[in-house]
Predict the 3D structure of the following.
Amino acid sequence: PADVARRGSLVALRYRANKQLQLRLSVVGLSPGICDPCVLPGSLRDSSAAALMTDERCREFAAKRLVVIDDVFPCALMGTARAELRGLRRQKLLKPDPNDVCNPAQESGYFPFVEGSGALEMRDSCPATWAVVQRICGIPAILEDALGLRLAVPRCAMLACYPPGASYKMHLDSYAVQGGNE
């Protein structure tokens, strides 16, 4: 039991140290994704997102802080997006982070999707992924309007894949009980 607690504490400490390093590198522009300049949700409105977040779903989200929506994207679009992500992986644009304790062996990268931030390259090289990201990024404006929230959306989307051997664990920074609220 003491050994397990020690290992757990080491993992949590390593995670927090890595997050602090990422934050500092991001602030000075050396690492994307954590402190990217954000845009207001209204600038990302997407009419197709309204079909996802109906009034009923917004109420469910407000009550439960979670809403599950099935069949959001057509299978053909997701198949194309999957092929695009495989292409990014083959090009080594998705990379593992050896310090990631929540998603061991996950391969990921941050890609701009807001106009003027290098997004045209992503739109041209990964049009299906671009369409998925654009639709998802329409949701914050709906939530702001429906729930009176004040949100900001990063200019980059994190794209990730889980090759064989990769796994997903609870993110320590997502649960105050588990590791803080960074």
The helical segments are 2-27, 55-64, 75-90, 119-125, 127-136, 139-147, 176-179. The radius of gyration is 18 Å.
